[in-house]
Structure formats: structure tokens, C-alpha cells
């Protein structure tokens, strides 16, 4: 059986003419990624975070542990500045290790340029290459733009998890979505 190695670097030009690079995350990315999370959190409740979390140290630990646990973390830079991030965390334990949990964010200024799709496509290709059977993710049910992207990539709705995230506005539901990478039956 031949295993295809996933492409973990992609570069190009955005529709607005700016250069971008998607590459494996490095420890030095932590400050920029923490600032990116902070900026997206400040836009409103698009992600399960509030401004001020995580800090640089927490983000650095998250990047290192993700890779040590066999996961994936890719950073998107636009003109050399972090503008997006995707992580795939392998679930722990023999009964769950075939599933990877995806988390993605893209800065507001770069949404609509196809960069979120590029990050997701790379995560999906990586999941297949490393033998995952399924990718799953959680998204706020009112984040229709993100849901549209995930559905266009083949993710299916798998259910609503009620009161899953405690946000300043109150407890929020999450839509659980999944993508079979191999026959799960």
C-alpha cells in the first residue's frame, strides 16, 4: 500500500494581490496566533473564546502538545503576518484514535479569499494521509458562512450539542459536523 504524503506548505497570491503562505506552525508563532485569536474573539461570538485568551504561553504549549500528540497545526501568513490557523487534534484512546477534531480560524480581513478552504483542504488531506477515518468539528449554529464552507467540503451535520460553550452572552449550542475519510462501517 502506497501512502501519499500530505502537502504541508502552500503559497500563492490572494485575490487582492497579497502573498500568502500556509506552513506547519512553529513555537515562534504563538504570540501572533494568540493575537489572532484575540482579534477574532473581539469580532463577536464566532469562536469559543473571549478577548484576552489564550495568552502567548498557553498558545505555545498548545502548539507543542498538538504535534507531540500526533496532531497537525498549520499557520496561514498573509504578507508575513499570521492571518489564520488550523489544528487537527487526534483523539486519545484506542476507541477514539481514528478521529481528528478540527479547529480553524481566519482573520476577518482575509475571509472570502479562499484561505479557509485551503487550510481545511490541507487538514483533510493530512487526515487521509495519516490514516484517520473521520474528522469532526464543532461550530456555532448561527455561523452560516463557516457551516457553508464545511458542507461544501463534504462535512455532514451530526447533531446539536446543547449548552456546550459558556460565553459572556450565556450558554451556547454547538453544531457537531463530521467528514468520513474512509468507510466507517
Which terms summarize this structure?
185 residues; alpha+beta; Aminopeptidase; 8-stranded mixed beta sheet
Distance separating the two termini: 21 Å
Strand order of the largest sheet: 1-2-3-4-5-6-8-7
Number of helices: 4
Number-wise, the strands total: 8
| Helical content (DSSP H or I, runs of 4+) | 25-40%
Q: From the helix content, strand content and strand pairing, which structural class follows?
A: alpha+beta
CATH architecture: 3-Layer(aba) Sandwich
Beta strand % = 25-35%
**How many domains in all?**
1
CATH class: Alpha Beta
H/E element order: EEHHEEEHEHEE
Mean model confidence by pLDDT: 86
Instruction: Output the radius of gyration.
Output: 16 Å
Tertiary shape: globular
Write structural notes for this entry.
It is a single chain. The chain is an alpha+beta fold and 185 residues long. The chain has one domain: Aminopeptidase. Helices cover 27% and strands 35% of the residues. The chain has an eight-stranded mixed β-sheet with strand order 1-2-3-4-5-6-8-7. It is globular. The mean pLDDT is 86.
